[in-house]
Amino acid sequence: MTARDLHPGAWWLWALGLAAAASFTLNPVVLLLICAVASLVVMARRTDAPWALSFRFYVYFAVLVVVMRVLYRIVLGGGASATDVVLLRLPEIPLPEAARGITLLGDVTQQALLGGFYDGLRLGTLIICIGAANALANPKRLLKSVPPAFYEIGTAVVVALTLFPQLAESVQRVNRARRLRGSPRRGVGVLRRIAVPVLEDALERSLTLAAGMDARGYGRAGSATPAERLRTGALMIAALCVMCVGVYAYLDGTAPRYLAVPALVSALVLAAVGLWSAGRRVQRTRYRPDRWRAADLLTAACGIAVAIGIDRAYDVDPYAVMPYLDRWPEVPWWVVLIALVGVVPALLTPPPVPDVPAPADHRDDREVSRAGAA
Amino acid sequence: MLELRDVSVTYPESVEPALEHVDLTLADGELALVCGRTGSGKSTLLGLFNSLVPHFTGGTLAGDVLVDGASILGVPPRELAHLVGYVPQDPLSGFVSDIVEDELAYGMEQLGLDPQTMRRRVEETLDLLGIADLRRRALRTLSGGQQQRVAIGAVLTMHPRVLVLDEPTSALDPTAAEDVLATVARLVDDVGLAVVVAEHRMERVVPFADRVVTVADRRVAAGDPATMLRTAPVAPPIVQLGRLAGWDPLPLSVRDARRRRSDLLDRVAARVEARPGDPSDSRPPIPRPTILRAEKVSVAYRSVSAVREVDLTLRAGRVTALMGRNGSGKSSLLWALQGSTRRGGRVSVDGRDPSGLSAGEARALVGLVPQTAADLLYLETVAEECAAADSQAGVEPGVCRGLLDRLAPGVPDDRHPRDLSEGQRLALVLAIVLTSGPRVVALDEPTRGLDYAGKDALATILHELTADGHAVVVASHDVEFVAVVADEVVVLAEGEVVSEGPVAKVLAESPAFAPQVAKVLGPPWLTVAEVEAALR
Question: What is the ipTM of this complex?
Fold first, then answer.
């Protein structure tokens, strides 16, 4: 397959599909499988771009979340029933009357630990899925694909994304320059020593960028009448409200079913009309937009398939998805297969276009600043 | 094409106008060079052409500005994007996307051009600027010269009638600067654009210029380059040489001047023969102790080698210049001399290695003024900065201020360091660095943003430092500055020393680094001052 970058939307749909699947289950094996699938695809399909290198930070964060969840369950123990298996007996610290209902330490049960672990794992998996999307999809190309109505917001985000690495670079530069001049050793002084030059730098850059963008025609189009603006705004707010109702009804099993899917669908319709109405006034065109081709559709479909599969699995075998807390979780083979569908993009999509490496002499300056910070 | 009628600009919070009663007309297909001292209002003048002044900067504008015959008063810059292409000083800070091709298309997307036209224009522009092989490259990985050409291309795709460039070559090495200027000259020839360029290092642009616009004392004057440069407040070396030799009309290119050099050469030769000695060894050969000796210094960042086994000797009372293209390892070498991490080799300053010492002790051996000197400043007033420098260096109060007064007299105590001129700010940072009393002073690209007068002042400062017994090392692209200031030159390429020796020998030998006077008169002449001294 010839190398090409997939549509960023495809990666996001895939990753959100995996994330949705993870949110439907507490089975640790399935969750770890989803993490593995996401990591594998990231390894196979990411580039050398800066955002692609951030994946490991999401992994660290996910691990931290799991650890925190378990610790939390240990520290704020209690709530154990008589049948629970006690693993560790810790003294219970008495709390004043005001904090009634909260217990500090106390018996640590297997149920509490596993519950915390599974819960943390689910959250961690969500984080890893989002991290995978961030690593695989070029954020700037994604923002280029948003509907024209979001153009202004999109540009603001692009600018923020551009300025952020520059900010990091100037922090490193200023930090390195501290060596050249005595500097306050601790406290507010250090912060000021670094923050003042960095912020001045950032402010100057932002102003230059704003002037440059204005000079290049940014914000040129736009001749909406007040009535049009009002209509667009009303449509978008209505869509948002209906969407909230729909999502709530979908996730809350006790809400009437007729609220769920119909509300979601009508919210989508309202949003689409609103976007169309807002986009009509924008006279802007797009240079070589990303297209959806077979591989992109396949990637998105894989993610969605995993989500639907795990969701449906609950109907077939609830304990495969929501395991007992007192024994080893069972994992039917077909649930494993469903989760493994997510790995298909690593095999069947074209590899990304390799990032052209910077020639050695230009790396110089940036590497200097990195090494200086280290 | 561009017309200013009795324009005055007053910025808010200032009593005096920045520009006053300016009348100026620029025709189609003309390259106009705007010159003037730093802070004279060059950027204000450029900003007028696409309404950035006063729309973006604030302030009030009196008079009328016409582009293509229509008044643009009250029209915001974005509505002029298709008429006037404006390229800001630092191209990287003006980029909106991350890929060359997308950046070229950005302006057209704003104009709402159809995809077919966009595609065609992007291809045409890539070819016109000779950057077709860079089309998929990330902007951050390009070299300075390439970035500048992309920035020019990004406004050209909108097919403007006027191109406004604010100091397009200030951060570039001589070769990259030539490339960019050749590109601009070709645009004037082939596309028929009107181009307005503001530039400090005028020597590069003057040969291409059809008109010279001088900005001084809030007034603007324009005219034929040869006439204007006769009296311009700032002038490139070749013009100064012409003024000195009394040539009329003034030569504007090296080729012009070379054809007329014979009489000057005769006069200079006659004077020199009358006196013993030749200008390159006019300084008496007194023994100079070595202060810093670096042996086989290597610097590497992960797998990339920045400096490879460089030997360097700095002597008291001498200025050594490090030259070489962008990224040839000049900065890395300076940082290594100051004591930053290096991969191998030895540095010894009076028998001590700065890298083994604490930051404070290293500062007392080698003082470094980094490329972005403002990184060292963080307080609100000049006085606070000086006081902090004194206490940090552990010297009695007033030392830093005293140094500053020697380097740049008359910097007000209560001024915010950001509000100082480039030259004053550099002097402040240098004073702070000198407060620690280093024997070796290193400066990384100190001439960025300095005009000719600023560079002269800096040269005087450096000569004073050497007279005090300091050893000075300067990394610079600026050939003319190096010719004036340096005693010895070390040229680096890919982290290795490719040539070193006395300034006259090294500079005159290299086609890229030869100053204009050397190009005209041949070695050993390097600077106008030398010729002037010989004629006296």
Answer: 0.84
